[in-house]
Structure to design on (126 residues):
């Protein structure tokens, strides 16, 4: 994957379109409404995240697993399926097919690792 395949400038609109769908989804909207107050900041962090994942820009600094572990009780297999379905629709719509496939595969692997971590999580010592 290089700049010719996926342009940095595409990431922010892609992320915004995805979360527009998320906010209109009955299952996912409440999870995000509870956790995200500054959508501009969330979009920026997610654009940085995908820039780091797909273009190895190193722009994202954060710990998504820790954040998702905190949401463990509401992150059911059904919510993951829905999240991935909306991601599929949005990437198919907004980037070339081979890029969409790569972004979908990445998301699926990360979702799988979150779900494994949630399933096998240990209580954190106080
Ligand atoms: C069931 C599916 C998912 C739900 C409901 C969900 C929900 C959330 C929520 C509510 C936040 C905000 C957390 C906070 O700021 O306190 C968040 C952040 C984030 N999520 Fe997810 N997520 C899901 C799957 C994924 C997947 C599959 C990925 C990666 C491909 C991902 C990547 C991220 C990233 C990078 C952040 C930002 C972390 C930061 O602010 O540094 N999420 N997610």
């Amino acid at each position: 994957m290089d700049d010719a395949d996926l342009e940095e400038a595409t990431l922010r609109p892609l992320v915004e379109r995805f979360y527009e769908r998320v906010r209109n989804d009955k299952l996912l909207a409440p999870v995000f409404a509870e956790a995200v107050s500054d959508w501009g900041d969330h979009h920026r962090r997610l654009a940085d995240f995908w820039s780091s994942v797909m273009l190895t820009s190193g722009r994202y600094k954060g710990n998504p697993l820790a954040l998702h572990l905190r949401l463990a009780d509401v992150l059911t297999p059904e919510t993951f399926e829905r999240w991935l379905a909306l991601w599929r629709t949005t990437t198919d719509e907004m980037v070339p097919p081979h890029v969409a496939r790569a972004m979908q595969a990445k998301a699926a692997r990360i979702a799988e690792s979150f779900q494994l971590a949630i399933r096998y999580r240990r209580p954190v010592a106080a």
